[in-house]
Amino acid sequence: MVDIVLAGYARSPFHFANKGALARVRPDDLVAQVIRGLVHKTGVAGKDIEAVFMGCAFPEGEQGLNIARLAVFLADLPQSVGGATVNHFCGSSMQAIHMAAGAIAMGAGQAYICAGIESMTRVPMMGYNPLLNPALAKSFPPAFISMGETAENVADKYGMSRADQDAFSLQSHKKAAKAQSEGRFKEEIVTITGPDGAVIEQDGCIRAESTIEGLGSLSPAFREGGCVTAGSSSPLTDGASVVLVCTADYAKQNSLPVLAKIRSIAVAGCAPEIMGIGPVAATKKAVERAGISIKDLDVIELNEAFASQALACMSDLDLDPAKINIDGGAIALGHPLGATGARITGKAAQLLKREGGRFALATQCIGGGQGIATVLEAAE
Amino acid sequence: MSKIGKVAVIGAGVMGAGIAAQVANAGVEVLLLDRPGEGEDRSSIARDAVARLLKTDPAPLMHKRKMKLITPGNTEDDVDKLAECDWIIEAIIENIEIKQKLYHHLEKHRKSGSVVSSNTSTLRRSDLIEGMPEKFCRDFLITHFFNPPRYMRLLELVGGKETPEALLEKVSSFCDRSLGKGVVVCRDTPGFIGNRIGIFWLQCAVVEAMDRGISIEVADAVIGRPFGIPKTGVFALLDMVGLDLMPHVLGSMAKHLSPEDDFHKVYREPELIKKMIAQGYTGRKGKGGFYRLRPDSPDKVKEAINLVTGEYSEASRPRVGVVKKAGTKNPRKVLQDTSDAGCYAWAVMSRTLAYAASLVPEVTEDIAAIDEAMKSGYNWKYGPFELMDQIGTAWLVHNLEVDGQKVPPVLKQAEEHGFYRVRYGTRELLSMQGSYRKLLQRPGVLKLEDVKARGGPVDSNPSASLWDLGDGVMGLEFHSKMNSLNLWSLSMMQRAIPQIIASDYKALVVYNDGSNFSVGANIGLLMVAAKLRAFPFIDYMVRKGQDTYQALKFAPFPVVSAPSGMALGGACELLLHSDAVQAHAETYTGLVEVGVGIIPGWGGCKEILCRWATSTDGPQGPMPPVAQAFEQIGLAKVAKSAEEAREMKILRKTDGITMNRERVLADAKEKALELAEGYVAPEPLDIVLPGPSGRVALDLAVSGFHQSGKATAHDVVVSAALAEVLSGGETDMTRTVSEATLLELERKAFHKLCRHPDTIRRVNHMLKTGKPLRN
């Protein structure tokens, strides 16, 4: 089978929704700037790109009208480049990568831009017109369970204490703050220009000054007497991320900076009321398909939708904490739903190259009870 | 003379920032300057003051958006900007030397023809302009605002003989129409009018209570309600003002008033108060004052000080017999009472009223101006001369003489006929010459009491009346307790319609002079009916309200509602059904029904939903209007100003806002007459709603709030009923929902909720405590 690689990764700075620096930036403009940044950074020829696959969890309003195709125009890519918007909730842009890899494997082109976008400021979670199936809501209420409640359920089921969650969250901030202060995000962040000319070049959600006492003082956010707080949850975030997926041959011929090879992919379902545990089944599948074991993984990007679910997944999969989210995770950086999959996959590839090692995993949970995972292998 | 288009306020203290906020509330740009700060940001003092405006309670700004109109700066770097200002208001420390230094500085930078004024409360204009250039003296006024400037109506305006009439008129008109103030032109005497009388009254009440051994709770009870004075009375008011301000103000009065002034008879600085100030008991802003909350007490026990021992103990709720007997309409009963409380009331109020009368003509020749000053500046319901009329001037003169008090000449003149009277349908007042003159309102001011003086109502029942407002406009007045709405109120609305049509009136204006337009439907009635299990009666009330409001909405003449103060629940629903609203800027309105476990049942859900559904701003689709209405009603949101009501779509963009309370009726009448030209009643609306798919989404959101402890069990029940109505019941987005269907959904939901025991508990609790029950 043809070798498929990640040959570039970029993202926008991530900022709090509503109050952050990206609140006034349209999502289509935001992601187009990141695509332009990636094209510039990698030097990939626009004419060679088969399509832009764009992950977005709530593709309506300014994220509607097939934002992927609109981004092609906004990013000045040739009109020959296709554009398809992908909705797999939080897994959207990882799904975009999987679709590109599948298409390439089918012989349908040699290079794709896989992007993710979410302005949680400008398109609210649930969208503007949430219209649920009343019959399903009655017969199977977990289909529409709130994410916060699932985090509490996972904490209950796995006995995750408040203290463990707070400690995990603090670590996320400390790692991210360290990475930021050492300039380790510069490689991936594309500077964004706002509508008023404002230049946005740094992440805005990381709280370097976070303390265990501060986190401990927060009230439960989703359940009275519960243990999940705003501090142990990823914040509502605005952001975009992009990776270049292409064949190893194409990358070589065009001297593209290969980060890693895609070794295997997987999705898996689980009970919606504990959706946070989704990465477990997906990871097991992907690792098995890669023909390796968990112990072979050198770098792991495990999305931190909530500390409780991240800890539960680590426990179930017996993951080594030292290998996880080396530059911080979503609790510190933010989780712009549709953009997270491309960020963690791109980041895992970048880290594999930076830190050395052979295999990396990027995995995340998905609302409705799912997990998605990608195993990467160091490029030769 | 040019209009006032831009204002500067110098001095960013509480008063200066508050005045700047009120100018911004009027939609006028304002520069707020203070001395340069020491840090990098040299305008930090003014900038911090502007930032504090958003955190101050009660809010100085009518809408946070207004903050954009205030530009902070400092008196050195931004002094050139004063050249753009038409009016410069000085609100700095009460020190003539420092003020004059600032005035000289301003003189170099202000533009020709601009007005400069001081917000001084204790200094005289003549002292402030001494030695100043002629041009400055000509353009200089005193504009004395009361604290807090947004909420206190009184503005005392002092000019001099060199002040051009046009300049005085320009400032007066701006303060009246744009800032909404009750402008009282005063002579240049110490304390002007409000504080001259108010400080005498407060000081007299304090020393008399101390001398007579009257507790502060009794003093406040007896001096408050019977005289139409706010229930804060004397001591609670002093706590609000700040005890530490008093020595300064009293000292200034003592220094500047003539030795013959009766003020000196009550002037002294009690040791207890000195001690309280020294210990930080400066009032509400400090550790407490005459009243305090028991320190380290989680259950907020209110304590009162003993004026003799200085010790605090739990505040009592004194049952003063005469206060109950006198009610709110018979102050003489209290003054006649021979109990200690009654004698105290006589000692304080007789001297205060006589003092007020003795100030004519020293502070002004116009007794109505004095009444206005005390009503606007101290929130008295009646001014001193109106009070004396209520008490009976002949009785008062006689008893003052018996008591050995001086009877001022103006009171003697009023002995026979009082200060005010009605002759041939016109209100008149006593002039200095001893004759009566017509009480003329300023152009654009129409008072219901003047309409009433002209003759009886067109129609009336115990809760509402119809009045002929002139020019073919009918007025509907509510006058039940708190203007709550009941079957009588609804009947009068219904009776108005055929009478307006039959007598060729052109329009209806709903208005009253009360401090609150209406607190909404009478829930006491709901409670009684529920206790008697008279549910068919409740259903009838709901139906009657709906029918009445629909009849007004589709009547062949325009209906303009003109609220001021609270317009809650059923009253808000009336605003929503009106063709137009002309609201006083200080209108507090919202659909608050969920607080008592019900939903708006007189078409409020329907109307607010239609407002959001027909709005073109914001996201479109079947859910956004439902979500907006659901949040607004479900959280019982109340607009804290007419501006906020506009944002909540209770007021439309085309509805009017009047800053001055006294101009609301005339503006509403004008609006009604404008609408009457070629008036066509609106068409009933049909809107697209999401049906069960949307309802499930709302239920899901509420379930989340319940799980996180933000919504109670009964909130879930009430919200579910509300969601059912707002989502359109069983409709589908391919169909439209009529007004009639929405009204039916409201009735069904109301029918269900009013039978729920937890709703009954909420109503009961509200009636007993005035606060919502979180069950």
TrEMBL record, chain A:
Pfam families associated with the record: Thiolase_C, Thiolase_N
Keywords: Acyltransferase, Transferase
Domain of life: Bacteria
Pathway annotation from the record: Lipid metabolism
Record flagged with keyword Repeat: no
Keyword Transferase part of the UniProt annotation: yes
Chain ranges of the Thiolase N-terminal domain: 5-248
Alphabetical list of CDD domains matching this protein: thiolase
Sequence ranges assigned to domain Thiolase C-terminal in this UniProt record: 257-377
PROSITE patterns: THIOLASE_1, THIOLASE_2
Family: Belongs to the thiolase-like superfamily. Thiolase family.
NCBIfam families: AcCoA-C-Actrans (TIGR01930)
Protein name: Thiolase family protein
Species: Kiloniella laminariae
Automatic annotation (TrEMBL), chain B:
Keyword NAD: yes
Chain coiled-coil ranges: none
Stated name of the protein: 3-hydroxyacyl-CoA dehydrogenase NAD-binding domain-containing protein
Pathway entry: Lipid metabolism; fatty acid beta-oxidation
InterPro entries registered for this protein in UniProt: 3-OHacyl-CoA_DH_NAD-bd, 3HC_DH_C, 6-PGluconate_DH-like_C_sf, ClpP/crotonase-like_dom_sf, Enoyl-CoA_hydra/iso, NAD(P)-bd_dom_sf
Domain 3-hydroxyacyl-CoA dehydrogenase NAD binding, residue spans: 6-189
Keyword NAD: yes
Alphabetically ordered keywords of this record: Fatty acid metabolism, Lipid degradation, Lipid metabolism, NAD, Oxidoreductase
Catalytic activity line of the entry: a (3S)-3-hydroxyacyl-CoA + NAD(+) = a 3-oxoacyl-CoA + NADH + H(+)
